[in-house]
Amino acid sequence: MTLVSTQVVPIVDHLMLRFLKGKHVYLEPATGRHRESIRPLAKDERIWEFTKTLMINDDYDHQFDRYFNEALDLVHIGAQAFVIRAVKDDRIIGMTRMFNIERKDKRLEIGHTWYIPAVWGKVYNKECKLLLLRYVLETLGFNRVEFRVAHQNVRSQKAVARIGGVKEGVLRRFGIRNDGSSRDTVVFSVIVDEWPETKKKLLEMVAAGGV
Question: Of 115, 124, 98, whose CA–CA distance to 17 is shortest?
Fold first, then answer.
């Protein structure tokens, strides 16, 4: 598999973020033109069961616009939200973000990742993480990628562990979800020392994954 860069987008501090394309998924920087395509896709309670990032109620449109504006605003602080597309039919299947970028310490966080339920458990997330991790650890030369997952979201914790994330600990009572409930945050990471073995594992998983 090759990582294909079809366009380069300059942002703050000369960090260069690319459109990333693999065999199964295509990541493009989120822009305002994606808003109305994503709005109905995100209106599914199953996506937000554990995070409660969006509540599917009468206030959904207001919540969604605030959520999407926050994603777009990342570019002003040197971060980026991506729209995830399936290569085979170009349909949008989810979103992810690269943020909390600390250039001096060569680390950042990947998160706010979600997919439409129809593609859960398939190859898309594995290849998405492969593209992002390879970009961060190889192209950018960073040392650490962090993933933070709500303790209620066991499914996502298992997914991060499967792609090679090492569980480092739990930040207790770390936040309040939008339904008012408390959450602990489970911290995982992939560091550059582990990347050759983790990449090999991810490549094998993607090759065997199908769709």
Answer: 98
Q: How many residues can be counted in the chain? A: 211
Determine the residue type at 42.
Answer: A
How far is Cα 132 from Cα 195, in angstroms, rounded to an integer? 12
pTM: 0.89
CATH number for position 69: 3.40.630.30
Rounded Cα distance between 171 and 137, Å, is: 25
90-134 per-position pLDDT tens digit: 999 999 999 999 999 999 999 999 999 999 999 999 999 999 999
Residue 205, amino acid: M
Mean pLDDT across the chain: 91
| Non-local CB neighbours of 83 within 8 Å, separated by 6+ positions | 27, 28, 29, 30, 34, 38, 92, 94, 95
Nearest 5°: the CA angle 119, 121, 127 is 80
Number of domains in the chain: 1
What was the pLDDT predicted at 177? 87
Q: Where are the beta strands (DSSP E) in 46-181?
A: 80-86, 92-102, 107-115, 144-150, 166-176
Range of the domain at 52: 4-209
What token pair was written down for 170?
Answer: 């739990």
Whole-angstrom distance between the N-terminal and C-terminal Cα of the chain? 15
User: Mean of the pLDDT values across residues 11-20?
Assistant: 57
